[in-house]
Specification:
With 237 residues, the protein is an alpha/beta fold. The protein folds into 2 domains: 106 residues, ATPase, nucleotide binding domain (Nucleotidyltransferase, domain 5, 2-Layer Sandwich); 100 residues, ATPase, nucleotide binding domain (Nucleotidyltransferase, domain 5, 2-Layer Sandwich), CATH 3.30.420.40. Helix content is 31%, strand content 26%. It has 8 helices and 14 strands. Strands 3-2-1-4-7 form a 5-stranded mixed sheet, sandwiched between helices. The radius of gyration is 17 Å and the shape is globular. 39% of the residues are buried.
């Protein structure tokens, strides 16, 4: 498949749906557009909302969608923030390809963010701190199969999504939430033995403690920009 000249990048989030046309180098062609995520989060409603969102945008060749859940071969495996039963097995890539008449790639949203920030050397881990907890890992620039750590129990009966998710942050406050994130980093270091860790997502800007030398806060805009690199970097699904 020839390289895309311009890529429509879509970020499906728990609170908002975002889209922008981006060059293969990750630069915005125009300002991104955003609407609130519909309260009715069924596949049909989300597909319709996305089609309306991107309709006013300019021309593009390919489409990348970042989705907050486990995905494989264009299909949604789980969508905990959207109602897993409604989404399980839904081929979102095919549905959007029918609507937009362009080739579509569907990736986990943390995977997309990672594609924009990694250096392509060694084992790099990307974690997103947003509505929930997302992860993506790369070896020498290659995206590895997705591991849904968000639902691995971290403390008593609470999984990563609960322990460091946005609802918990709002309930316990930033100070206590930061202590939890700080404790999480050495756990991830032990499990992954990463060379570098990138912290992204909407709540990464609330991290206020001194980070280890091999940990970096990255812009949440990478969740859009990485969509361009999805058509350039090799991936394993």
């Amino acid at each position: 498949m020839p390289a895309a000249k311009q890529i429509l990048c879509i970020d499906v989030g728990g609170s908002g749906l975002k889209a922008a046309i981006i060059t293969p180098r990750g630069r915005y062609v125009a300002k991104r557009v955003r609407i609130k995520t519909p309260k009715d989060r069924t596949p049909r409603k989300i597909v319709t909302a996305l089609a309306k969102l991107v309709a006013p945008l300019g021309k593009y060749d390919h489409v990348t969608i970042g989705f907050p859940g486990a995905v494989k071969d264009g299909k949604v495996i789980s969508a905990p923030n959207f109602g897993t039963e409604d989404w399980k097995g839904f081929n979102l890539a095919a549905a959007m390809q029918r609507r937009l008449k362009k080739p579509v790639k569907l990736l986990n949203d943390a995977d997309v963010q990672g594609l924009a920030v990694i250096k392509g050397k060694g084992l790099e881990l990307v974690c997103t701190l947003g509505t929930g907890f997302g992860t993506a890992w790369f070896r020498d620039g290659e995206l590895m199969p997705h591991m849904d750590l968000a639902h691995l129990v971290m403390h008593r009966k609470d999984d990563f999504d609960v322990v460091v998710g946005d609802m918990t942050r709002r309930q316990i406050g930033n100070a206590r939430w930061n202590k939890r994130v700080k404790k999480l980093i050495p756990v991830l270091q032990t499990v992954f033995n990463f060379d570098h860790l990138y912290l992204g997502g909407g709540n990464s800007s609330d991290v206020n403690f001194k980070l280890p030398r091999n940990v970096t806060i990255v812009s949440n805009d990478a969740g859009m920009e990485g969509g361009a690199f999805a058509w350039r970097r090799p991936t394993k699904r």
